[in-house]
Amino acid sequence: MTTRHYIKDYPRPQFVRDAWQSLNGEWDFRYDDDNMGERERWHEELHGDLKIQVPFTYETVASGIGETTFHPYVWYEREVQLPDTLGNKRVLLNFQAVDHIAKVWVNGSYAGGHQGGYAAFTLDITDYLNTGAGAPNRLTVKAEDSQSCTQPRGKQRWVDENFECFYVQTTGIWQSVWLEYVSPSYLKSVKITPDLDNRSVRFEYEAQVAAPNLRLETRISTQEKTFKQVSLHIDRSWQQLDVELTHEANGPWKLQSWSPASPVLYEVEFVLYEGDNMIDQVYSYFGLRKISIEHGKVLLNNTPVYQKLILDQGYWPDSHLTPPSEEALIADIDAILAMGYNGVRKHMKIEDARFLYWCDVKGLLVWSEMAATYEFNDEAVEQFTKEWTEIVRQQYNHPSVITWVPFNESWGIPQVYTNKHQQQFTEGIYHLTKAMDPDRPVIVNDGWEHTISDIITLHDYEESGAALLARYADSGSVLGGSSSFNNWKYAMAKGYEYRGQPVIVSEFGGIAFNTGEGWGYGEQVSSTEAFIERFRSITQAIKDTPYICGYCYTQVTDVQQEVNGLLTADRTPKIPLDEIRKINRQARE
């Protein structure tokens, strides 16, 4: 099952136009280690000495290059053939992700840029194009990266070799590049906020307004038929409309909420008219679902939900952070569901928008987590804040996203336990996130040393279920700050108190087989039986701790030197998936 207007490989399936063109594929490529390209005007003619398969980075086998040495400046170029029938259409150039700074030229003229390796961005390149049937157009991109710990880099290493849980860097274009064609007036974005309790939905429209007589129709439908249609005069760039979800002729519609058990999606069509002429048409969707917190529990649609999550870093052997295909994303989601998990913590990565689409469609809960910096200073604060707000806005409409996680394990805020400045930074990000999205929980500093946080999360790689059960028997000791809960970290930062929030063990397990290569957490096991017994023991201990309302196991797959996945890096199960499923199903609902 898909949404009605699903297009395979469409890079942004939450906001779909029919008129688009993929620019993935072969580009000319060139290293620029001495940063001479701009001075030598490579944007006028690159003379690329390599070929690269976009959107795979040069570090990956899938790119056709496969060199892991760090290069701080790289260039791309290709010719673009535009449709002959553009007329007065504007041409939008979309990048789903370029790490870390992108500069873009069209036919030798600078068209714009973007900073931030995980957020998508769009440039209107119309004014730089050669027009006319068959006219050639040259697109040139320079990507600048660094080994700086002030830029959000997630699990990308900042030295020349992999170490601990840090992996080969990702430099340059690593998600899809594509064009779309729009009229001078068009819809730029729509923020969709369903309200389950009041049976309504709010639309916040952002439009490019280039004409005085614009009317926007919003049509809400099921797979079968439209049941609500509203119209709005568009006379400025931002407008808002609240829509009651009732049937026009027959009173209240029988609404269905979105959940893992029943991931019902309502389709939305936005049609923009100039006078009587349709000038833009966009397809989207939403799920009618509510996330809330009451009495120490996380509620989904006003009912407590026991979260059985698995940590997912989203790496593949030959393509690293870039999914090798849309089918690969679907296969990962299907494997996670087959193992009995109802959600995923997407760790230190902002995942491809197609992944979130399939989580929406299939009913997989998602914690969305920002890629960390590893230093605390003004530059790091500025870069982190700017990109995080872009991410929250871009992922806001996905019903599968139920939790925001801006920080993890004090990365980028290393003295947050006692340092007031770093504590204030976390408070600022918490409140900024809540200003943009008051309805989703925000976890500040996943794992330990929380300041203000809607959920208290604990990371603990204890190997013994009995030891785990004993450790968490006294909630006051664990959450009250009188002792470190995992023998070296505290649940709360100094000056902050536990206030009855839900408690989730959001990292545990990490069991690895003894293969002589790589690492896992604790002693490696030598047999399937030993793996299953340890997995069952620690999972059962968490389940038997009454005040803990969910868990997140580490992790889905092996990643480079880290070999503690339930699947190998090439997605081969180490343990029969139904064995994992049985143990997860025994965990309380």
UniProtKB/TrEMBL annotation:
InterPro entries per record: Beta-gal/glucu_dom_sf (IPR036156), Galactose-bd-like_sf (IPR008979), GH (IPR017853), GH2_Domain-Containing (IPR051913), Glyco_hydro_2_cat (IPR006103), Glyco_hydro_2_N (IPR006104), Ig-like_fold (IPR013783), Ig-like_GH2 (IPR006102)
Domain of life, source organism: Bacteria
Domain Glycosyl hydrolases family 2 sugar binding residues, every copy: 21-143
Key word Hydrolase present: yes
Keyword annotations: Glycosidase, Hydrolase
Pfam families registered for this protein in UniProt: Glyco_hydro_2, Glyco_hydro_2_C, Glyco_hydro_2_N
Residue ranges of domain Glycoside hydrolase family 2 immunoglobulin-like beta-sandwich in the record: 186-289
Keyword Hydrolase attached: yes
Domain Glycoside hydrolase family 2 catalytic: 324-583
Protein family per UniProt: Belongs to the glycosyl hydrolase 2 family.
Protein's name according to its UniProt entry: Beta-galactosidase/beta-glucuronidase
Organism for this UniProt entry: Paenibacillus silagei
